[in-house]
Design brief:
6 helices, alpha/beta, 13 strands, 7-stranded mixed β-sheet, globular
Amino acid sequence: MTPPMIARFWGVRGSIASPGLSTARYGGNTSCVSIHIADAGILVLDAGTGIRGLGKTLAGGNEKVFILLSHAHWDHVQGFPFFTPLYEAGRKITMFPTRLSTGSPCGRCLALREQGSPPSICPLLDQMDGERFPVRVEDVPSQPKCITQDEMCFLRDQGFEVARIPANHPGGAFGYKVRHNGGSLVYLTDNELEPPYPKVTRFEEFAAFARHADVLIHDAQYVERDMPHKHGWGHSLVHQACNLAQAAEVKHLILYHHDPDRTDGELDSIQENARQWFEARGCRLRCTVAFEGLSLEIA
């Protein structure tokens, strides 16, 4: 029997880390989810402050690590310099920049690119410049590598079947679908389903992308009282994420990327209200508010 795909949650907050007594149960670290597939390695979705905890569990191992960013905003990259495998000699860490640049690549960023394509700047490595972080990437003993061409093909060759879709977010972002052994997980953080600016992707397209997924992880940073002040900030309302899950007929919705000011008690209420929302509509899908330590097996 083929081992299942396992998803683990290391950071579930958005915008900025929010440690404290009021966020202790759900966690205060920013975005990071790991996907474990036997014989392929570990696919890390975003490198917020949650990646620090993941790194501790990987210390001393030899698993291949692939870090795939939704985008390069601070709350999705700031944990990377604290990722333990980065400081282990010979450890292979492969990254996928979210955009191409005409700047000069970092000396340790071994870009794989077609001849004549523009060099890449990797947002994970760029912050390790001696000014924004004291350790320069040139001085780490691991073997970081940036893939800048045909990223999804590269991942498929490594054993990860991944598709992506543009998200509605200021500055741009991507969502991803990971398939394994008949199961599927969709990761759509930092996605504004009904933005005031022109949509990159329509609701119907997101629904088709997530159709019948075993797990849909979707941005649910805001509730109605946050509007209209935060309309256009690049995040969805809880009820919008629920609408998408119902339209896509997914099996399990994970509400994700919680506002840093959202307390544990408020997240309890959001989960209960969302479950009642589905029950009132005769929809049997599961709904869970993401928390640090959550682990899911996807057959």
